[in-house]
From TrEMBL:
<dbReference type="InterPro" id="IPR003010">
    <property type="entry name" value="C-N_Hydrolase"/>
</dbReference>
<dbReference type="InterPro" id="IPR036526">
    <property type="entry name" value="C-N_Hydrolase_sf"/>
</dbReference>
<protein>
    <recommendedName>
        <fullName>nitrilase</fullName>
        <ecNumber>3.5.5.1</ecNumber>
    </recommendedName>
</protein>
<dbReference type="GO" id="GO:0051410">
    <property type="term" value="P:detoxification of nitrogen compound"/>
</dbReference>
<feature type="domain" description="CN hydrolase">
    <location>
        <begin position="26"/>
        <end position="298"/>
    </location>
</feature>
<keyword id="KW-0378">Hydrolase</keyword>
<dbReference type="Pfam" id="PF00795">
    <property type="entry name" value="CN_hydrolase"/>
</dbReference>
<comment type="similarity">
    <text>Belongs to the carbon-nitrogen hydrolase superfamily. Nitrilase family.</text>
</comment>
<dbReference type="GO" id="GO:0047558">
    <property type="term" value="F:3-cyanoalanine hydratase activity"/>
</dbReference>
<dbReference type="GO" id="GO:0018822">
    <property type="term" value="F:nitrile hydratase activity"/>
</dbReference>
<dbReference type="InterPro" id="IPR044149">
    <property type="entry name" value="Nitrilases_CHs"/>
</dbReference>
<dbReference type="GO" id="GO:0080061">
    <property type="term" value="F:indole-3-acetonitrile nitrilase activity"/>
</dbReference>
<dbReference type="InterPro" id="IPR000132">
    <property type="entry name" value="Nitrilase/CN_hydratase_CS"/>
</dbReference>
<dbReference type="GO" id="GO:0047427">
    <property type="term" value="F:cyanoalanine nitrilase activity"/>
</dbReference>
């Protein structure tokens, strides 16, 4: 018997009425898979197959990677260079824009139905189009088939800034659900301390991290966030081979393995689930597409926060304070004045 178990047993023996706490277990699954590039209907169909498989194994929460719908454009150059514009790049963007989805819209309705049919909470990365601007977005759905809302990535990384817009503070949600408080940070947003703190401040418990970062170093970030936030971290990354991408001479892949074969790994996955106590519960998987599943004991959140509650007893609000602007930022605001017409139905005083 471990020291912790002995202490618990002694406490029960010496404390009158010590309750036997019910265990709250949530089964969570990450889908590690590649987009079907330039084919959004097939991508959604593929997602549905994985979601159904996860649900058949008892999953209550299913998480898919960053930009799963429409795809993470790894290696795409879009013809970009300082002072350079070309037709090939424009046409590449046209195709990418065509694969993106409107939120809400028919594809969102399809995903909501998948969540309802399989009775799961669903978090999935998508490229959202708002007019002709694209956003890297995480979508949230309930087991009742309701679209809960979205999070737009607030800070695209590097060349992503040339093709994706910036989200604002109006889409940084944490949803209070029966399985825990659910939210997301996308890819390198997870490296932004103030962004993480905004999620901690909303009480996040199921911290989803859809990403395109399959590096070994990424695992250290996920471990740190689990310990810092006292939350479960579910990091979902695509696993892609060169053959999964459209053939294009201008793509610049940095392969994980030094060959140019169609089977060469381009995105190596590394999806992982980590507990608030810093235990790796499932993954990381660097080998293939597939499901990464773990049972989450929500009691671990309280166990972790006994010693460290980053926005609670371990904070110093009189010294450090964060203000988050949740107002929607619009580039154009129309203000109209309603003028009441003079009523001529009544005679005027003379």
């Amino acid at each position: 018997m471990s020291g912790t178990e002995e202490m618990s047993k002694a406490l029960k023996a010496t404390t009158p009425g010590f309750p036997e706490m019910p265990s709250t277990i949530v089964r969570a699954t990450i889908v590690q898979a590649s987009t079907v590039y330039n084919d959004t209907p097939k991508t959604i169909e593929k997602a549905g197959e994985f979601i159904a498989q996860a649900a058949s194994d008892g999953a209550q929460l299913v998480v898919l990677p960053e930009a799963y719908i429409a795809g993470y454009p790894r290696g795409y150059r879009f013809g970009l260079g300082v002072g350079v514009h070309n037709e090939a790049g424009r046409d590449c963007f046209r195709k990418y824009h065509a694969s993106a989805i409107v939120v809400p819209g028919p594809e969102v309705d399809q995903l909501a139905e998948m969540a309802r049919k399989n009775k799961v909470y669903l978090v999935i990365g998508a490229i959202e189009k708002d007019g002709y601007t694209l956003y890297c977005t995480a979508l949230f759905f309930s087991p009742e088939g309701r679209f809960l809302g979205k999070h737009r990535k607030v800070m695209p990384t590097s060349l992503e800034r040339c093709i994706w817009g910036y989200g604002d503070g109006s889409t940084i949600p944490v949803y209070d659900t029966p399985i825990g408080k659910l939210g997301a940070a996308i890819c390198w947003e997870n490296r932004m301390p103030l962004f993480r703190t905004s999620l901690y401040g909303k009480g996040i418990e199921l911290y989803c991290a859809p990403t395109a970062d399959g590096s070994k170093e990424w695992q250290s970030s996920m471990m740190h966030i689990a310990l810092e936030g006292g939350c479960f971290v579910l990091s979902a990354c695509q696993f892609c081979l060169r053959k999964d991408f459209p053939d294009h001479a201008d793509y610049l892949f940095s392969d994980w393995y030094d060959n140019k074969h169609p089977e060469a790994i381009v995105s190596q996955g590394g999806s992982v689930i980590i507990s608030p106590l810093g235990k790796i519960l499932a993954g990381p998987n660097f080998e293939s597409e597939g499901l990464i599943t773990a049972d989450l004991d929500l009691g671990d959140i309280a166990r972790a926060k006994l010693y460290f509650d980053v926005v609670g007893h371990y904070s110093r609000p009189e010294v450090f304070n964060l203000t988050v602007n949740e107002n929607q930022r619009k580039p154009v605001t129309f203000v109209s004045k309603s003028v009441k017409a003079e009523d001529d139905s009544e005679p005027r005083d003379k």
